[in-house]
Amino acid sequence: METNSNTILIFATNLKTERDKTIITTVLNNNPEIEQWSIDLEDIDSVLRIVSTTLNAKKIIQIIKEQDFKCSELSE
Amino acid sequence: MRTRDSNKEDIVKQKAIQLLVEKGIEGFSMNRLAKESKISVATLYIYYSDKDDLITKIGIEIGKNFFDEMTKDFSPTMPFKDGLYKQWENRIRFTQSKPLEVSCWEVLTHSSYGESILEESLIDFKIIMGNFFKNAIERKELIPTISKEVFWSMAYGPLYSLLRFERDGKNFGGGVFKLNKKTTDEAFELVIKALTP
């Protein structure tokens, strides 16, 4: 997948269960500004990966927090 | 602007292969890979969207390298004996020069990722080997009634047994086994005898 890494944003979250995943699935899939996203629940940081050319980290953190989850940006 | 560093990517790939062999799939973690590759977890997630994605991509890449090596100087129209010998040579060379990749391949293809990796990376290889098989039967260089599975185990089984002895340092009482040309040829002649009508 040749995506410009400028548009990839990475976050640590506290999502744990498949149910948590289902909750944000709806939210993220319904957001037209998110081109692609995935979450790795196997990872200790439950890493959320978002591809978007228009949203910034702050906005995404807000979206996740609105669902009552913790979210912080993982920086390089 | 953050750019992809292809050198970093290669280091990560090599480390991933090593960790998959050492820890197995269950024991493999993105966090540990990031640590051992000396990159941040965030950087790792730029290259791969998650553990599944990484494992699948690594598996497919090994499969494609495997395929390129197997078909070096090989053509499905070669006489059966020559073609099979070339296959043996290529597989021996690959196994001896890239033991880590080979071990990793075995781990991955025997896992739940196996099917998707094999499907993706070996499409062309299957076609070429299928044609090789067909041509040999048409030219009456190969027993016509042999089934594909039996063919494979006769044509390659002995070779892989020998390679495994070498890898495991098998000792049959004459010192640690090493696969050399003499032993290769000895086994090959018997295989050809068995498969030729």
Word description of this protein:
The complex is a heterodimer of chains A (76) and B (197). Helix content of chain A is 29%, strand content 25%. Chain A is α+β, with helices and mostly antiparallel strands and 76 residues long. In chain A, a hairpin with a 6-residue loop joins β2 (36-40) and β3. The longest helix of chain A has 12 residues, at 18-29. Chain A is globular, with a radius of gyration of 11 Å. Chain A starts with 7 loop residues before the first strand and ends with a strand. The relative contact order of chain A is 0.30. Chain B is built from 11 helices and no strands. In chain B, α1 (6-27) crosses α6 and α4 packs across α6. The chains are: A alpha+beta (76), B mainly alpha (197).
In angstroms, what separates the terminal alpha carbons of chain A?
A: 20 Å
- Biggest beta sheet attributes of chain B: none
Spatial order of strands in the largest sheet of chain A? 2-3-1-4
How much beta of chain B, percentage-wise? under 5%
Short note summarizing the structure:
The complex is a heterodimer of chains A (76) and B (197). Chain A has two helices and four strands; from the N terminus they run βαββαβ. With 76 residues, chain A is of the alpha+beta class.
Write the layout of secondary structure elements.
The complex is a heterodimer of chains A (76) and B (197).
Chain A: E1 8-13, H1 18-29, E2 36-40, E3 47-51, H2 57-66, E4 71-73
Antiparallel strand pairs in A: 1-3, 1-4, 2-3
Chain B: H1 6-27, H2 30-36, H3 41-47, H4 51-70, H5 80-97, H6 99-109, H7 114-121, H8 123-138, H9 148-155, H10 157-168, H11 181-195
Helix pairs in contact in B: 1-6, 4-6, 4-7
What keywords describe this structure?
heterodimer; A: 76 residues; alpha+beta; 4-stranded antiparallel sheet; B: mainly alpha; Arc Repressor Mutant, subunit A; 2 domains; globular
